[in-house]
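Please fill in the sequence for the structure shown.

STRUCTURE ENCODING:
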């Protein structure tokens, strides 16, 4: 498929997709879509992925801009986002990683449930101002083990309770952990 500039190519039935290119927008409204070749979709914008949609990444994908407003992204391969990622509802199912590239801007907003079940590798800026983010057993944020997330409007936080005995055994201090943690989360902003 080829999408002209300012055009929108809409899918509302199940397809296996090997190539979509052009300067327009692709919308996956409903159905199951198997992306079978690396970087199968090379248009500037993919939006929205609707609530009745499953996007199955059977090969690594790199998108410029993605809006996830429902549905599920699944499959064994990585998904890299290079510019913008807006997530208000839906599930990132177990499989490969979600990679937010350096220079990218991502937002997690809204009160609908959002399920994160794959590894999140963030090198961009990620802003979380919503609620109902559920981190599954197979999700991971590099450097964070067993996180407990809660959200209070106006007071987002990451709370870590160090095991002082294990720190002493490793010749580390609480300050060492604090400095490392701040570095890991330096690119995450909260409203």
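FILLED IN BY: designer on duty
SEQUENCE:
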């Amino acid at each position: 498929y080829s999408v002209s500039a300012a055009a929108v190519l809409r899918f509302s039935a199940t397809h296996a997709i090997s190539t979509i290119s052009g300067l327009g927008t692709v919308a996956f409204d409903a159905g199951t879509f198997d992306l079978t070749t690396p970087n199968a979709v090379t248009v500037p914008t993919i939006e929205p992925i609707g609530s009745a949609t499953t996007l199955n990444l059977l090969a690594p994908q790199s998108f410029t801009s993605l809006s996830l407003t429902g549905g599920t992204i699944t499959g064994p391969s990585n998904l890299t986002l290079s510019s913008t990622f807006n997530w208000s509802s839906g599930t990132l199912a177990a499989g490969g990683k979600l990679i937010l590239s350096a220079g990218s801007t991502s937002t997690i907003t809204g009160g609908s449930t959002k399920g994160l079940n794959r590894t999140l590798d963030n090198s961009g800026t990620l802003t979380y101002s919503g609620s109902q983010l559920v981190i599954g057993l197979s999700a991971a944020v590099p450097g964070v083990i067993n996180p407990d997330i809660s959200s209070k409007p106006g007071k987002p936080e990451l709370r870590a309770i160090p095991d002082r005995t294990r720190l002493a055994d490793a010749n580390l201090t609480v300050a060492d952990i604090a400095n490392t943690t701040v570095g890991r989360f330096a690119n995450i902003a909260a409203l």
